[in-house]
């Protein structure tokens, strides 16, 4: 997973093409806000969407019903599960 650079201040510098900046500024003006607010709000919406997508587990309705059924009626422990439990360190 990529590491995000964390700086001690609240400033972030971006290098973008003049045409890109002009388009962002035009959009900000159309929204009746300044460029910083426009870019920040747009980036935050996208960041929230990316995080939500990464943290969500998506399953089909059929899989959802299977998961619920397994939670309500779990299978009996098999040899591999017993071996895994036996391999756990004693913490008590």
Tally of DSSP helical segments: 4
Question: Major beta sheet, specifics?
Answer: none
- Note poorly predicted spans: none
State mean pLDDT (0 to 100 scale). Answer: 91
Helix content: 55-70%
State Rg: 25 Å
Gross morphology: elongated
Beta content comes to under 5%
Helix/strand-derived category reads: mainly alpha
Distance between the termini: 35 Å
Helix-strand string: HHHH
* Secondary structure: number of strands: 0
Structure described in brief:
With about 90 residues, this protein is an all-alpha fold. It is about 60% helix and about 0% strand. It has four helices and no strands.
Question: Would you kindly provide a written description of the structure presented here, covering whatever features stand out?
Answer:
By secondary structure, this protein is mainly alpha-helical. The protein has helices spanning 18-30, 35-55, 61-72, 79-87. The two termini are 35 Å apart.
Which short descriptors sum up this protein?
92 residues, mainly alpha
What secondary-structure arrangement, pairings included, does this model have?
Layout: H1 18-30, H2 35-55, H3 61-72, H4 79-87
Helix pairs in contact: 1-2
């Amino acid at each position: 997973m990529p590491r995000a650079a964390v700086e001690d201040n609240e400033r972030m510098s971006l290098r973008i093409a003049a045409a890109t900046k002009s388009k962002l500024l035009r959009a900000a003006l159309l929204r009746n806000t300044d460029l910083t607010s426009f870019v920040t709000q747009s980036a935050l919406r996208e960041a929230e969407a990316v995080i939500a997508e990464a943290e969500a587990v998506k399953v089909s309705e059929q899989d959802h019903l299977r998961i619920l059924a397994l939670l309500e009626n779990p299978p009996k422990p098999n040899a591999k599960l017993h071996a895994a439990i036996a391999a756990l360190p004693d913490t008590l």
